[in-house]
Amino acid sequence: MDNNTVRGEADSMVGRAKKAAGELAGNPGLKVKGQLQEASGNIQSFYGRTLDSVRAYTLREPLRALVIAAAAGMVLMQWKIRNRER
C-alpha cells in the first residue's frame, strides 16, 4: 500500500472529525476547514490507490507498460513541440 493512501485516509478521518466538531460547536470556519481537509485526504488517497494500480500493472505486464509509457512520452513530446512553435 502506498504511503499516500495511508496519509490520505488519515487526513480524511481528521477532516471528518473537524467537520463534526465544527457542526457541534456551531463554528462554520472549523466545519469548512474539516470539509476541505476531508476532500484533500480523499484526493491523496485516490492518488495512492492509483499508484498502487499502476505498479501492480507494471509488474504484471512489463512490456505493455513500457509501450504505453513510450506512447505517452511521444504524445507529450509532440504537444510540447507544437506549443513551442506558437
Structure in words:
The chain has 86 residues and is mainly α. It has one domain (3-85). 93% of the residues lie in helices and 0% in strands. The protein contains 3 helices and no strands. The chain has helices spanning 3-25, 28-60, 62-85. Helix 1 (3-25) packs antiparallel against helix 2. It is elongated and about 55 Å long. The relative contact order is 0.14.
Please outline what is shown here:
The chain is 93% helix and 0% strand. By secondary structure, the protein is mainly alpha-helical.
N-to-C CA distance:
43 Å
Question: Uncertain regions: pLDDT < 50 for 5+ in a row?
Answer: none
Shape: elongated
Structural class: mainly alpha
Radius of gyration: 20 Å
Say how many strands there are.
0
Strand content: under 5%
Helical region count? 3
Helix content: over 70%
Average pLDDT taken over every residue: 95
Structural domains: how many? 1
How would you sum up the major sheet? none
SSE string? HHH
Write the layout of secondary structure elements.
Layout: H1 3-25, H2 28-60, H3 62-85
Helix pairs in contact: 1-2, 2-3
Quick tags:
single chain; mainly alpha; 93% helix; 86 residues
